[in-house]
Design brief:
Blueprint: H1 55-61, H2 73-90, H3 98-104, H4 128-136, H5 144-149, H6 155-163, H7 166-177, H8 182-199, H9 208-225, H10 238-247, H11 258-262, H12 269-274, H13 281-294, H14 300-321, H15 332-341, H16 354-374, H17 376-379, H18 396-414, H19 418-441, E1 447-450, E2 453-458, H20 461-468, E3 476-479, E4 485-486, H21 488-508, H22 512-516, E5 523-527, E6 533-539, E7 548-551, H23 554-567, E8 580-581, E9 586-587, E10 596-599, E11 602-605, H24 608-623, H25 636-649, H26 654-661, H27 666-672, H28 677-694, H29 705-717, E12 719-720, E13 723-725, E14 745-747, H30 752-772, H31 775-799
Antiparallel strand pairs: 1-2, 2-3, 3-4, 5-6, 6-7, 8-9, 10-11, 12-13, 13-14
């Protein structure tokens, strides 16, 4: 194997350890299955042994009609000439067998391509058919690098025909009936045949470990040949895994997907500690015992973080400072050196989370003190004075306030930019959606105009081939002036999910993990006594392990309905998919997650990193035209902070905002709100004063029928001529029903014509006031016109959103209900 095969250029930047059986680093190792090549029960030689066969015999076998009966005679004769030319080339290299000569040649080592040895342009005969024939006959066993170096057309069908393997033919038939697109069916067959040829086994010998080994080695070979290419960094064999799993070829305990088999999952506490290689085995045992006891009252993510702080940041550094340290009795000098060491990270940058490391260390010592009183035989030997002096925690409150101030400043910077970001994703989605609708109605080669640009509907040869196989083809158009081909179907898909993610985050204020965990089961409804139905969104327990319910606004309900409709547009229910929790390292039960999309051969739930990449890409696009976005990024949590700020600024009591945000403590909500403290205190104190007036000092009494009726009538009284008022319950109108100027007014799109009448009347009054020189009246009318036009623009923007037809629900047939004949 040449040295170039050991290069890792182009691999993912998050390298993991070198897996046993692999020769390079990968983060997809350490899963439940160890990757290792397959072992042949018996060498597959369907047409005999060719290790020392003559050139004439081996070349004639390459054109045997009985092996490839569907191939034209003239084509097979060309294969014979090609194979002879290849064998004559291999004779120039040392070796007793054809395999040894192949491995000694630059072609077999993957250093050159087949065209560099012989092609129709140079020698009149291409050796590519000869290479393919020798692979199919099992005369030579290539490496993945050599296989990838020379593409082989029609290798899959030829290889299957030459093997005379009933199980392999069953696999090919299963692939044709599997729910895969044509391109994925083709790749599944080629990748399995490649695995069999490279590892020198039959399909009956293929195990999950062998397929994982092939995926890793294939990725390495592709990255070596095309370093830096994003396509080269993909994992192959996922479609093969799905089909073999569906066939029952793998053991029942095998994970359903290759991704589940690659991910490590939760490590044991011993593995978490041992990854930092502690020399003192007694301290190692203590840390394992301590973390095992802490495991009962914490989740895996927190436990993993605590292990890193105590093992890597604390004891590992102590061993660097004082290799002879035997116990937890740390001298002041060593502690001072350690404290200085953790102020910077390994890359030399200042460490922000120093306080959390010191607090974890202090808790570690005090926990040992407490536990030693109850179990002295187990913990008393490790009791030692805590090396953290009281002065370390002085100023902790000040430092936390500085963090809150930076967060508040971050929110103040991004809140004015939110309308620009929202307008960008809405405009991009509308443009892509309308262009896609127009292109779908156009015939092939038809020219049409959209937003002043001429497009031509096109279909490539690959599209026509997919249509012949019954696959859906992506919609493509060509800009007539520039000739640029636009994959409008793909662009519309990406634009939709960017719009849906932004709108769902800003209208709900949910955490990014909660957004990714939304399912179709999260949607509920509440029907009031007057028949009005209120849509609710149930947020599954996440950070606080506490379920909560959010009343959905019209905008949020439109987003959720659009997502459901997109999944159900093919007439099928939302696919049931398992979601991988990157924090707890566990898989969920299959559920109809809303934020999921097809990724190659399998549907996958959006990860938190995917949404963050989306937002980063949006900000980069905006930075090209808006200098405010240069060097600025939106994160999913920024939408949560802005949502909290707008809640309190609109007059909602802060404790209700805490309930909507899922905070257990109202002080946490105060940290999210980027307003002046006096405003927060004033709103909160007014709420407390009002609550004390209407509630007794003792226990809360039950709600009376009259009070409940008044509560419901409050929402009815909020209906006004132009729409509805959004003022909170129990608050009167603060603007004396000057609705046009009120930010609480939500315009009904049906009343847009009425706004035109009001604007015309205001313009007439403005002309009269200007003529009479009524300056105060002019100022007031201009202000009213400004509010009116802003509300009209906002209402028209909502009208432009496409209607979502959820369809008529059909009654489900249960087991107790007999089916109709």
């Amino acid at each position: 194997m040449p040295d170039t095969q050991l290069r890792t250029t182009g691999l993912s930047r998050r390298h993991g350890p070198v897996a046993e059986g692999l020769q390079f680093a990968s983060r997809f190792v350490g899963g439940p299955i160890k990757p290792e090549p397959a072992v042949a029960a018996s060498l597959p030689r369907p047409h005999g042994e060719f290790a020392t066969a003559s050139i004439s015999h081996l070349s004639s076998m390459a054109g045997t009609a009985s092996i490839w009966p569907d191939v034209h005679r003239a084509t097979r004769q060309g294969w014979v000439r090609s194979t002879r030319a290849l064998l004559e080339y291999l004779l120039t290299f040392p070796g007793e067998t054809w395999q040894e000569r192949w491995e000694a040649s630059p072609l077999g080592q993957g250093q050159v391509t087949a065209d560099a040895v012989g092609s129709r342009h140079t020698t009149g005969t291409s050796i590519v058919p000869g290479i393919r024939a020798l692979y199919c006959l099992r005369a030579i066993q290539p490496t993945l690098l050599a296989f990838r170096q020379t593409p082989l057309p029609s290798f899959g069908p030829m290889f299957i025909a030459a093997q005379e393997d009933a199980l392999l033919e069953k696999f090919a038939e299963q692939v044709r009936t599997h729910q895969l697109r044509h391109v994925h069916r083709r790749d599944a067959i080629i990748e399995l045949c490649m695995l069999l040829a490279v590892q020198g086994v039959a399909l009956s010998d293929v195990t999950p470990a062998a397929l994982l080994h092939f995926a890793h080695e294939n990725r390495q070979a592709r990255c070596t040949l095309r370093p830096g290419s994003q396509a080269s960094n993909r994992i192959a064999g996922r479609g093969v895994w799905n089909v073999l799993h569906a066939m029952g070829h793998f053991p029942p305990s095998t994970p359903e997907s290759m991704r589940a088999a690659m991910l490590r999952g939760q490590r044991t506490i011993e593995d978490l500690v041992d990854q930092y290689e502690i020399s003192n085995q007694a301290i190692r045992g203590l840390l394992i015992d301590y973390l095992t006891r802490r495991k009962a009252d914490t989740d895996y993510s927190t436990l993993k973080d605590l292990t890193c702080k105590l093992t890597r940041h604390f004891w590992k550094n102590i061993e660097k400072i004082n290799p002879d340290q035997k116990d937890l009795r740390i001298s002041p000098e060593d502690y001072a050196a350690w404290r200085q060491l953790i102020t910077v990270k390994d890359d030399g940058k200042p460490r922000v989370g120093q306080d959390s490391i010191v607090i974890a260390l202090r808790s570690f010592y005090y926990d040992l003190h407490t536990w030693a009183a109850d179990e002295p035989e187990r913990w008393a030997a490790w009791v030692a004075p805590c090396p953290v002096p009281p002065s370390e925690l002085r100023g902790l409150g000040v430092r936390r306030r500085r963090i809150n101030e930076r967060s508040a400043d971050r929110t103040r910077q991004r809140q004015p930019l939110l309308p620009l970001l929202v307008n960008h994703v809405e405009t991009r989605y509308d443009r892509a959606r309308l262009l896609l609708e127009r292109a779908d109605r156009a015939a092939e080669s038809e020219v049409f105009t959209h937003e002043g640009t001429e497009y031509r509907r096109i279909r490539t040869e690959a599209d026509r081939k997919m249509l012949r196989h019954g696959d859906d083809v992506p919609t493509r158009v060509e800009e007539v002036d520039s000739g640029r081909i636009v994959h409008i179907g793909t662009e519309e898909e990406g634009a939709f999910w960017e719009w849906a993610a932004v709108e769902a985050l800003r209208h709900s204020g949910v955490r990014i993990e909660e957004l990714c965990e939304l399912t179709q089961l999260s949607i509920r409804q509440y029907q009031r006594a007057n028949g009005e139905v209120i849509a609710l969104l149930v947020i599954a327990p996440s950070k606080t392990d506490r379920e909560r319910v959010i009343p959905m606004s019209a905008e949020l309900f439109h987003v959720i309905a659009s997502v459901i409709r997109r999944h159900a547009r093919a007439g099928r229910p939302i696919p049931l998919v398992s979601r991988y929790d990157a924090h707890d390292k566990v898989w969920s039960a299959p559920m109809p997650f809303l934020f999921q999309r097809q990724n190659g051969t399998t549907p996958m739930v959006f990860s938190t990193a995917t949404v963050q990449v989306m937002l980063g890409r949006i900000c980069d696009e905006l930075a090209e035209t808006h200098k405010e976005f240069r060097g600025l990024k939106f994160t999913p949590h920024d939408f949560r902070r802005i949502f909290a700020t707008e809640l309190v600024n609109s007059g909602l009591p802060i404790h209700i905002g805490a309930a909507l945000l899922g905070h257990l403590d109202v002080q946490t909500t105060r940290g999210y709100v980027a307003v002046f403290d006096e405003d927060v205190v004033r709103h909160y104190q007014e709420h407390l004063h009002h609550r004390r007036q209407v509630r007794p000092d003792g226990e809360y009494r039950d709600t009376t029928d009259q009070e409940w009726t008044e509560f419901e009538e409050h929402f009815d009284r909020r209906k006004v001529e132009l729409g509805s008022c959004a003022r909170p319950y129990g608050t009167p109108c603060q603007h004396e029903h000057a609705c046009i100027r009120c930010p609480m007014l939500h315009i009904n799109p049906k009343m847009l014509a009425r706004l035109e009448e009001l604007e015309a009347d205001l313009v007439a009054r403005l002309q009269r006031a200007e003529a009479e020189n009524w300056l105060g009246e002019v100022e007031g009318i201009n202000l009213t016109l400004t509010f009116l036009r802003a509300k009209r623009e906002e209402s028209q923007r909502r009208v432009r959103r496409p209607e979502v037809d959820l369809g008529i629900p059909k009654p489900r047939i249960t087991r107790s209900t007999p089916e109709a004949p």
